C-alpha cells in the first residue's frame, strides 16, 4: 500500500529554520512527482513546493521562493523541505504529496496528487 509520512515539524521562533522530511513506502509504489502543501486553520490548502522525479524541475509558491528549498533522494524515496527565515505566517500543517504515475511532470494542483500524508504541524512564534 502506497503511503507517505511526514516528519520534522515543530515550534520555532521567527527567523529560525526547520527541515521537513517525507518518506515514501509501498511494495509497488514509485513516487514520481512530489510536493509539499500547507494548510492554515480556516484556509485552503496551498502548494509550497513541487519537485519532479528527476529533481531537475522544481516549482515554488511566491511565499516560499528564496526561503524554502525542496530536494529529494530517489535512492531512499525521500523528499525534504528546508525552510529558512520562518515567519509566523508560515504556521500551518504541512502535507507531503506524491503522484504514483508519470503522467504529469510537475503538478502544482493538489488534485493531481494521489498519495497524501497526514501532515506535520509547523508553528512559528514572534
Describe the structure.
- The protein has 126 residues and is mainly beta.
- It has no helices and 11 strands.
- It has strands at 3-7, 10-13, 18-25, 34-39, 46-51, 58-60, 68-73, 78-83, 92-98, 115-116, 120-125.
- The protein starts with a strand and ends with a strand.
How is the topology of this model organized?
Layout: E1 3-7, E2 10-13, E3 18-25, E4 34-39, E5 46-51, E6 58-60, E7 68-73, E8 78-83, E9 92-98, E10 115-116, E11 120-125
Parallel strand pairs: 2-11
Antiparallel strand pairs: 1-3, 3-8, 4-5, 4-9, 5-6, 7-8, 9-10, 9-11
Biggest sheet record: 7 strands, mixed
- Strand segment tally: 11
* Helical content class: under 10%
Mean pLDDT equals 96
SSE succession: EEEEEEEEEEE
How much strand content do the residues show? over 45%
Number of helices: 0
Rg over CA atoms? 14 Å
Sum up the overall morphology in one term: globular
What is the end-to-end distance?
Answer: 41 Å
Summing up helix and strand content along with how strands pair, one would put the structural category as mainly beta
Low-confidence stretches: none
